[in-house]
Amino acid sequence: MVVYFVTQRGGSSLDAIRVPSSGSAAQQVEAQLRRAIVTLALPPGTRLSEAEIAERHGVSRQPVREALIGLARTRLVEILPQRGTLVVRISVKKMMEARFVREAIETAVARRAATGFDPGARVRIDDLLDLQAKAAARGAHETFQRYDEMFHMALAEGAHCALAWEAIADIKAHMDRACHLTLKGSMLPLVEQHRAIMAAIDRGDGEAAAEAMREHLSEILRALPKVEAEHPDLFE
Amino acid sequence: MVVYFVTQRGGSSLDAIRVPSSGSAAQQVEAQLRRAIVTLALPPGTRLSEAEIAERHGVSRQPVREALIGLARTRLVEILPQRGTLVVRISVKKMMEARFVREAIETAVARRAATGFDPGARVRIDDLLDLQAKAAARGAHETFQRYDEMFHMALAEGAHCALAWEAIADIKAHMDRACHLTLKGSMLPLVEQHRAIMAAIDRGDGEAAAEAMREHLSEILRALPKVEAEHPDLFE
DNA sequence: CGAAATATACTACCATACAAAGACGCCCTC
DNA sequence: GAGGGCGTCTTTGTATGGTAGTATATTTCG
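^ inputs. structure came back:
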């Protein structure tokens, strides 16, 4: 039996983003499963039975089913009709494609951000970067990853293109698990890259911001071969 | 009562893409509803009752519910818990954001396509363009729009970035209805723009391909004000 | 002994029934 | 006559039973 545990309470205020205590049961189950998959508590290849998950979460099979459909839409799980549902393995090919698309979107966002940035989002980003630096310092890579997500979300919002974040969020699903593995290493350089991006934006240099973003998103390329070699069972 | 009709049969082989006769009932209902919404057979503001749709399609409420959840995920409908589900109005703001993100992705795809294109996809695109030109000539704008979709999908696939199409498909939902309205006008110039993009790709000129794509995707900007003025009730 | 046919157990999928919550109209009260 | 409280209706959300299809283990036949 697969054993995993996801704290619903005891988290910071950020839990409201990914694991809302409000919302339908289906949404809660989906958020919890998503986190469990991304953190590899549910490793690739795990069979997900509707009945088993329903029992574990204390709900019926129907909300669980809807949660799994939602996860299947972002390709985190694969539903085989009348056969079963399982956590998909990390695909290097899809990761490379996802990175390409994400780079296309985020460099454009960075370029636009340099032409005018929402003041409210700007100050929030400063707070986020400080919090992220602290998380990095104490090695809390899960918290770090959530702040990273919030940074990129705030960046899109600040550039007056919230829709960009929605597109990124779906794409990111293909990369998150591999990123989670690489974060075991040093996190502080990533914060510095974030700061470099914001510095370029602040001085209105769109090209520099885009280039800094490109550099930032290329980071995963360096770590990927090593991670893949260390965990061959997680990849397809 | 809202009356609409979507042909499940009588279509070309392309129906297999958006309205698969196979697949679960939920997927079929979702595809039919999506088409009805995009073609404005179900105009913005329409209330969508799970029970009513279920009866109309001869299935139970459950598959319909899953279909609506899928549509809500791409923001085509809005589900108000315990209150009702309705077709969202076209948002110019979101359309502009969607166009921005789409331009970011597709210009990058075009640029990459110029560095190497899948031969199989290349010949398929030629066939598509011919079919699209014919559809434009006889004024079949719905068929035209489907070929347009297939063109952009084949382009992403040919550039070895199928994932890009998935991202675009979600984003496109915000633009499709407005595009549907503008297609009442001339369609042939759009085919020529497609051909210009492919010509640039064929000669390996990435920058020209990207610029041609940017030009192509900017077309909607010219028509949008007129459409919005003519159909104010469709917009928010 | 091997291979094919069969029985069984499991799955997602669909249908139906029930529950909870907001919207609306009605009636009573001030 | 106007405003507030209450009951009813409609809506989505959830629970549960039943069905068809698939994989696996078992049995049976060559």
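Residues 1-20 of chain B have pLDDT under 50 and may be disordered. The beta strands of chain B are 47-48, 77-80, 84-87.
thumbs up if we can close this ticket
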